[in-house]
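Researcher: Let's do a round of design. I'm pasting the structure tokens now; please hold your answer until I've finished.
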């Protein structure tokens, strides 16, 4: 147990996506944020929104960056709800391993929800690239 905040490390997988070192199914990008499909979705159309400025999670994030990130999260959430005609949207965000965080670059999860359908497991099964691509296009078309 520790009260110290671990430093940001730019070798995490989302930093690599930001640098273009590994691909993603991109939904939206501007000067401050990037949104893309989660490769192990917990539900149809599960996406992630990340800031371009590196922070480990919410706890060490710049408040101005947070403002832009939550605004982008709202934008993608509205588009995803429309794209999949969802009944609701779950927004999730984890801080440190004990809380379920597995990638240490701040991100919000955006998950369309449907009445009677439970949330899938966290970091479960890798989705087919064709499904991710099709769902990405649906959200982009609803932006
Ligand atoms: P967390 O556990 O909150 O840190 O969430 C990390 C999320 O990133 C999980 O939902 C993973 O499925 C997702 N993920 C891991 N690697 C990738 C990747 N290369 N592209 C897109 N999503 C990823």
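Researcher: That's everything. Go ahead.
Model: Designed sequence:
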């Amino acid at each position: 147990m520790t009260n110290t905040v671990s430093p940001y490390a730019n070798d995490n997988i989302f930093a690599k996506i930001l640098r273009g070192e590994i691909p993603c199914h991109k939904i939206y990008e501007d000067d401050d944020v990037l949104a893309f499909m989660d490769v192990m979705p917990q539900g149809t159309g599960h996406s992630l929104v990340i800031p371009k400025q590196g922070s480990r999670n919410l706890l060490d994030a710049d408040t101005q960056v947070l403002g832009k990130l939550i605004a982008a999260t709202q934008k993608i959430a509205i588009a995803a709800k429309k794209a999949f005609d969802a009944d609701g949207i779950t927004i999730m965000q984890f801080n440190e391993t004990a809380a379920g965080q597995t990638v240490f670059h701040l991100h919000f999860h955006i998950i369309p929800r449907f009445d009677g359908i439970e949330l899938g497991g966290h970091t479960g099964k890798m989705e087919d690239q064709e499904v991710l691509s099709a769902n990405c296009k649906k959200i982009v078309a609803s932006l």
